Amino acid sequence: MPMTIAYWCLLIAALMPYLWVAVAKANGKRYDNRAPRAWQARQDDPRSNAAYAAHLNAFEAFAPFAAGVLAAQMAGVDTNWIVILSIVFVICRVLHGVFYIAGKAPLRSLVWAIGFLCVVALLTLAALAAI
């Protein structure tokens, strides 16, 4: 598989936080761009709050994922593994946000864990390949 798929996954993962914050803003009351954090803190709509939490979590998950993809590539890990783990990660991150907003905590935690394991696998494969 071509490495470009993993790069597309990086782009999708980088843009994902903005998708979730758009959902948060769309479900909140009268968005105030002058004070977005204070505005979010005043929201009582569960969907807006869940989407905002997914937004923050997507930012948290991106850096380790990006590091894993790039480290694995630099270490010479088989491209097929990088691509498969990248695709699974992105699918899990999309589902994470969907399940967060839908209030499906067990499913959200499950896909979070699978996505996290993808990152751990990328970093572990990179470390092993560098030996």
From TrEMBL:
Tell whether Transmembrane is among the UniProt keywords. yes
Q: Which residues cross the membrane?
A: 50-70, 82-103, 109-130
Alphabetical list of InterPro entries matching this protein:
MAPEG-like_dom_sf (IPR023352), Membr-assoc_MAPEG (IPR001129)
- UniProt subcellular location: Membrane
Q: Which domain of life is it from?
A: Bacteria
Q: Which UniProt keywords apply?
A: Membrane, Transmembrane, Transmembrane helix
Q: What is this protein called?
A: MAPEG family protein
User: Which organism is this protein's natural source?
Assistant: Lysobacter gummosus
